[in-house]
């Protein structure tokens, strides 16, 4: 029985660790690639170009997460699902932006808030991938 409890705890800790790693990788990609783009003079304002700014930010976060997941031995399917969580908030939020219900800054805030539970859903979809995967 102690072995089962220990195994359950270990799997739960692996799941939590992966979630935290994805958040760190997501922000690392966003910061590093964003800084490179800005240094190259290719920065986009979320006030002036909110759709483009959001999509580029989602791309930057996806690159960071995908690089880390592939480094850690995850397959393409779970990697792309996790990246999809970065782009998915655009589906309901862009129309709200176009209807002037939200502005560019609100779009960014709401999208970031939505990404965290969407990442969790992607992980729960493949629970065994994230609780049993050997890193």
UniProtKB/TrEMBL annotation:
<protein>
    <recommendedName>
        <fullName>Flagellar biosynthetic protein FliP</fullName>
    </recommendedName>
</protein>
<feature type="transmembrane region" description="Helical">
    <location>
        <begin position="83"/>
        <end position="101"/>
    </location>
</feature>
<keyword id="KW-1133">Transmembrane helix</keyword>
<feature type="transmembrane region" description="Helical">
    <location>
        <begin position="107"/>
        <end position="125"/>
    </location>
</feature>
<feature type="transmembrane region" description="Helical">
    <location>
        <begin position="52"/>
        <end position="71"/>
    </location>
</feature>
<keyword id="KW-0472">Membrane</keyword>
<keyword id="KW-0812">Transmembrane</keyword>
<feature type="transmembrane region" description="Helical">
    <location>
        <begin position="19"/>
        <end position="40"/>
    </location>
</feature>
